[in-house]
């Protein structure tokens, strides 16, 4: 089927407008859509929830929630009240503007009330994946100096609070909670709290959310976003997700990942859309069922999920009514042309690739409904955004030259700081002009960008960003492991899988049991998605003279490629 012949919606944002605004859109135009344009004082939770609750949207469903045991819905008015109750409870225990409140729990309505309530008191939300194990949880709470944690009794054993002196309160979300010491009963306190709250108005550059993400070296870094990011969350929800009044929108991402907050909380609710949240684990049947049950019209997911749906077969799709789907988009990894063609075949719809990252806070390079898409390309920059390919000095390269994908500094949702690490923050910019993404890409003569790979060693597995260093550090904690080097190995479904090369300590011998034991060790100590799927033992690992494991040599071994320059390698 030809892409051009599709009858799907082309969106309200037309090509002529795009071309006119390309590279020069004035963001103050977006400010005018918000009440704070004149006062300068903002709160994104007000704009996302209360503004609608006080309008004709008051009884419109804001949140549809479903998992194996719950099926609930909440209107904007109810969302306003619940988040006010959380805000009152937080204020009562002394949470103030700028404090860090972390949320470590599976998706549930309470998670969303908690995030919005935190924002209403002016505090900074820190969402954590429920899959994190003790070491991962500790690193993040420690680095951020979190004052409050909201979690569940099941996850509590992974919170080493005796080692976290700055953590003052832990809310437990569940039944029959005994309050003692630092433990507080979330549900009971919320029920007893007032439904009215005076929002803490903050400055647009004040902290909103802290997402920890992995780089190629060191511990995970805390990427801070501020309230001003709402300009771009709002505008991209309009232009890229094409959200309209009657849409039923489903973003499949967990709030532990930036996609699950920028486009699972802020974007859709700033637009006043009905937002579907599905808890629990992925299964092709339950996903298609969710689209049918809610009549989802706009769907935002990730390449790994689309590839898993694709491999579940097209027969399955025929059992569901998916005819409501109007617009589909993807983020997280390269979207293979194959998947785009599959989408056209089975949904009669194009999957629109979007590119952005934790640090950029919102979508930057996208395929828009109004535009011809080139399968395999990430698309074109958002109006008001200047993207370029630059060399290592920050000089712009011509079309078709591969180099660093860079964005001209200063877009509304740009990270405002790396927590406790200003030096690292500064190192992300070249010539004080370009934010350098760490991705390599090229631009074609039509201005479309084409992803080529990561410049660093960061691994993308099933759309999750895993720092090899974090996995290596965990591996060497195992008594049998002397040295470990971790790489991403290309995989047709997951994008990449994690492969570890390990040199054993004296006295240990390689065996399948040992492989399994080491995998479990990482799984329990760090996170299931961080455990190497493959482990290979070697007598010695390639290292530089300064002792750094040379991952590119491991990669060359794995892929049977030439190892390249070995001048920095130790003997
Ligand atoms: C939102 C998010 C960022 C990294 C990014 C790049 C990869 C994201 C992509 C893509 C190819 C796309 N990435 N979107 N690669 N095509 N459309 O994913 O944030 O978890 O920080 O990851 O993901 O390598 O640098 P984050």
Automatic annotation (TrEMBL):
Q: Which residues form the AMP-dependent synthetase/ligase domain?
A: 51-416
Q: Which GO terms describe its molecular function?
A: acetate-CoA ligase activity
Q: Per the UniProt record, which residue ranges are transmembrane?
A: none
List the SUPFAM superfamilies. Answer: Acetyl-CoA synthetase-like
Keyword terms, alphabetized: Acetylation, ATP-binding, Ligase, Nucleotide-binding
Residue ranges of domain AMP-binding enzyme C-terminal in the record:
470-548
EC number(s) in its UniProt entry?
6.2.1.1
* Any Pfam family hit: AMP-binding_C
Please name the InterPro entries in this protein's record: AMP-bd_C (IPR025110), AMP-bd_C_sf (IPR045851), AMP-binding_CS (IPR020845), AMP-dep_synth/lig_dom (IPR000873), ANL_N_sf (IPR042099)
Which stretches are annotated as coiled coil?
none
Put simply, this protein is called acetate--CoA ligase
Q: Which organism is it from?
A: Ectobacillus funiculus
């Amino acid at each position: 089927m030809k892409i051009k012949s599709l009858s799907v919606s082309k969106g309200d944002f037309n090509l002529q407008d795009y071309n006119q605004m390309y590279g020069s859109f004035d963001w103050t135009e977006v400010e005018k859509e918000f009440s704070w344009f004149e006062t300068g004082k903002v709160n994104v939770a007000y704009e996302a929830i209360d503004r609608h609750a006080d309008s004709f949207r008051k009884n419109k469903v804001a949140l549809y929630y479903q998992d194996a045991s719950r099926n609930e819905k909440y209107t904007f008015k109810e969302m306003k009240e619940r988040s006010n109750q959380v805000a009152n409870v937080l204020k009562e225990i002394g949470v103030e503007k700028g404090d860090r409140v972390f949320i470590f729990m599976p998706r549930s309505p309470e998670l969303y009330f908690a995030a919005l309530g935190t924002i209403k008191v002016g505090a900074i939300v820190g969402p954590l994946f429920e899959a994190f194990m003790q070491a991962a949880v500790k690193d993040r709470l420690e680095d951020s100096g979190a004052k409050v944690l909201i979690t569940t009794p099941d996850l509590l054993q992974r919170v080493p609070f005796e080692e976290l002196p700055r953590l003052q309160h832990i809310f437990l979300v569940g039944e029959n909670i005994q309050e003692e010491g630092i433990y507080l009963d979330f549900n009971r306190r919320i029920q007893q709290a007032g439904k009215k709250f005076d929002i803490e108005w903050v400055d647009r550059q004040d902290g909103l959310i802290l997402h920890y993400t992995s780089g190629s070296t060191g511990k995970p870094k805390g990427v801070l976003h501020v309230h001003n990011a709402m300009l771009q969350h709002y505008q991209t929800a309009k232009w890229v997700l094409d959200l309209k009044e009657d849409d039923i929108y489903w973003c499949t991402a967990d709030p532990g990942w930036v996609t699950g907050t920028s486009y699972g909380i802020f974007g859709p609710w700033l637009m006043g859309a009905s937002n579907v949240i599905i808890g629990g684990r992925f299964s092709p049947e339950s996903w298609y069922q969710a689209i049918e049950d809610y009549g989802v019209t706009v769907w935002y997911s990730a390449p790994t999920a689309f590839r898993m749906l694709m491999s579940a077969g097209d027969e399955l799709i025929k059992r569901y009514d998916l005819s409501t789907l109007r617009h589909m988009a993807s983020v997280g990894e390269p979207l293979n042309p194959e998947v785009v063609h599959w989408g056209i075949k089975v949904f009669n719809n194009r999957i629109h690739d979007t590119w952005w990252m934790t640090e950029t806070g919102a979508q930057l390079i996208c395929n828009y409904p109004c535009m011809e898409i080139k399968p395999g390309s990430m698309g074109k920059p958002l109006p008001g955004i200047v993207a370029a390919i630059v060399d290592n000095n920050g000089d712009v390269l011509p079309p078709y030259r591969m180099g660093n994908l860079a964005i001209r500094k200063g877009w509304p949702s740009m990270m405002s700081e790396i927590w406790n690490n200003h030096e690292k923050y500064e190192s992300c910019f070249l010539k004080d002009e370009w934010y350098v993404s760490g991705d390599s890409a090229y631009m074609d003569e039509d201005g479309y960008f084409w992803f080529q790979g990561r410049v660093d060693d960061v691994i993308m597995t099933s759309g999750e960003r895993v720092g090899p260093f974090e996995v290596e550090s965990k591996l060497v904690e195992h008594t049998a492991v002397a040295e470990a080097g971790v790489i991403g190995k290309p995989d047709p479904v997951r994008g990449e899988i994690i492969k570890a090369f390990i040199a054993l300590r004296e006295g240990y011998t390689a065996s399948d049991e040992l492989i399994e034991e080491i995998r479990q060790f990482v799984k329990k100590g760090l996170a299931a998605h961080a455990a190497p799927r493959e482990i290979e033992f070697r007598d010695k690992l390639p290292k530089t003279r300064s002792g750094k494991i040379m991952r590119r040599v491991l990669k060359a071994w794995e892929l049977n490629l030439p190892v390249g320059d070995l001048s920095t390698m130790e003997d």
